[in-house]
Amino acid sequence: MIEFKHVSKVYANGTVGLKNINLAIGAGEFVVIVGLSGAGKSTLLRSINRLHDISEGEILINGKSITAASGQELRHVRRDIGMIFQNFNLVKRSTVMRNVLSGRVGYHSTFRTLLGLFPKPDLELAMQALERVNIKEKAYVRADQLSGGQQQRVSIARALAQEAKIILADEPVASLDPLTTRQVMDDLKRINQELGITTIVNLHFIDLAREYASRIIGLRAGEVVFDGPAKAATDQVFAEIYGRPIKKDELLGVEA
Amino acid sequence: MLDVSQQRITVDDLKPKWFDFRKNGKMWSSLLILAVIYGWSIRETGISLPALVEGIPHMQDFLMRTFPPDLSILSKLMAPTIETIQIALLGTTLAVILAIPLGIGAARNMSPYPLVYRTCRMILNFLRATSELIFALIFVAAVGLGPFPGVLALGIHSAGMLGKFYAEAIENVSKGEIEALEAAGSNKWQILRYAVWPQVLPEFVTVNLYRWEHNLRAATVLGLVGAGGIGFELMTTMRLFKYDETATVLLVILATVTVIDFISTRIRMRVL
Fold this sequence. Notes:
CATH architecture of the largest domain in chain B: Orthogonal Bundle
Strand content of chain A: 15-25%
Number of helices of chain B: 11
Radius of gyration of chain B: 27 Å
Order of helices and strands of chain A: EEEHEEHEHHHHEHEHEEH
Low-confidence stretches of chain A: none
Mean pLDDT of chain A: 91
Helix content of chain B: over 70%
Number of strands of chain B: 0
Largest sheet of chain B: none
Oligomer: heterodimer
Structural class of chain A: alpha/beta
Largest sheet of chain A: 6 strands, mixed
Number of strands of chain A: 10
Mean pLDDT of chain B: 89
Shape of chain A: globular
Distance between the termini of chain B: 42 Å
Order of helices and strands of chain B: HHHHHHHHHHH
């Protein structure tokens, strides 16, 4: 359960990122956040694991305030939240396995991780994670040898190895082609359904949002302007979220 | 950009204007200042062509006396040559050990507090600004003659160079990987180990090898101030006017530097 209570964010330069957000996202939901670029999608997502600090209000994760947490406490909350990035953010010179194992780092002492000594269950967990995204055979390949779609699947495996209970995906398919986009979205959906991991995804493709989301949240200028089931998000609703009619390039346009 | 072809060009425009003092006053005054600086420097340093010409016979004499090099002392040079390589190796290693914490502290994105950042920067600047020969003089005075002060001198000065390079390499690491580790609940050390280290590794190896090569060259002159190595032999032969032996020492230095450069290049190619 993720709760936003009167959350606002104003950047140092005066730009308003979020304006009085009140939301509750239940366990196991598949939420897609939509809105124009600059509407605050990324800020909202990154405030959940506090990669961005908020200026006002509070965010609770399973009743625990991440806003108040610091040091060790903050790291432990973050450990339960996996993150998928637009540019994958894998260490390109390291192997796939090492990248997946880096999701386990938060569970061990500094000393142990500095030496790179991961216990056997970690290795098995990492392998299972790779298997789940169908990329097990690439375990010992350097990350920069993989295609974009494969790299994104490795980063999903990293979140799985982390044993995350929540996955935040910030524009996970924005640098992928339409076909790989579907594979990655399918992986996210499958994990959400099979493991019950709460998943929050920022997307700018309208059709994709409707197809995968169980719930859509629309942001405009830092405010929630729509919050409802995917079915209720009609073209009319999107036009309102965007403040203008939807354009062709906001549709992925490839049917499943 | 201006499209010149579109402009109307008159005969006036084609006349050179650069000599017009009123229009280019700034340029002319800077040239004047530069000329004064040069004139002053030439006078103070006593640069004189006649002196150089007068010196030619002396140089000729020196070169004649170095030829043929006295190769009989080669076996005697073996030990100091090895010592020189050892000074360079240990000096570089000491530098790496000192430079790692300083480099991390001096990297804007990894330094824990602004005060630590500024202190590390200051230490690195000081170490770099002071030449290894000055450090060698200090350490010879402190721990006595021999190769040990040489190792210390190279280690301390090189730490300043290496630390600066490390800090820059760490600052150039892409932010995304750091963010990914941060998001997974890693602490600063773990971020350094899993996001920063793999990314700086190639540069780390390259810079250290370059420094080793540099330190070998520097180690050959450390002997001049009594800090061990082949430089001591170089100085002795010159003091005794045995220029044929000096020539041999120089040849040995040239050979050693070449061999080490070659080895270091090979290692670099293997690692990257």
